[in-house]
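Lab notes, practical 5.
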Amino acid sequence: GTDDVIILATGDDCSSGTAATTVFDNTSAVDYADTPSVSSDDQQTYNFNSTPPLRGGVYLLCWCQGSSCDPDGDLSMFSTDAGNLTIIGPDGTFDNAASPCVAGIANCTITIDGTGFGTDDVIILATGDDCSSGTAATTVFDNTSAVDYADTPSVSSDDQQTYNFNSTPPLRGGVYLLCWCQGSSCDPDGDLSMFSTDAGNLTIIGPDGTFDNAASPCVAGIANCTITIDGTGFGTDDVII
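Output from the prediction step:
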């Protein structure tokens, strides 16, 4: 009926799985489909929140019958498997903070996990809270492009991509969003709204390149010319000349 409900879950089956919570931009505690349309008593059509999915993966479709089904409540009612939903894209979990890139050192290479990758997919760097509302980064790497984007990826399987950022050393440190777009239509110099999918975060150790003491300069002949620079991942053995 039109009051049936489907939620997304991960695991082996719906009776033992875990409800998915971050695949769609929900106000609900879990990812669930909009009220279905019923073309006949043997077919239902669901739309997931009328918003783009935020991450890739293969998810369980778990069904519950009737108006008593509450996706914010008793999830044990969603124990019936309706099938699997495949979403192409990164799983959004990449984070290289434990093994970061370093400003001034080449070969900043990352490998992201997901589902259904292709060699014509594109990743750009951005700043902000998320890729759908962030601002494309433009000065982290020495690009001829208007924005910082990764070289054509190598694909070891349809669920893993390896990117190298322009084979040049990053110019500055920081923590940046990795924003992904599928396919040959993705143009990092064009419509950046296509890069709305978060693949994770890229950490680069080093100064952010913004220091300027022109408002409070050092003075020749006066000692204690002291500066404080901002950046990411500094150590006590770093050196500035």
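Observations recorded by the TA: The chain is about 0% helix and 35% strand. The radius of gyration is 23 Å.
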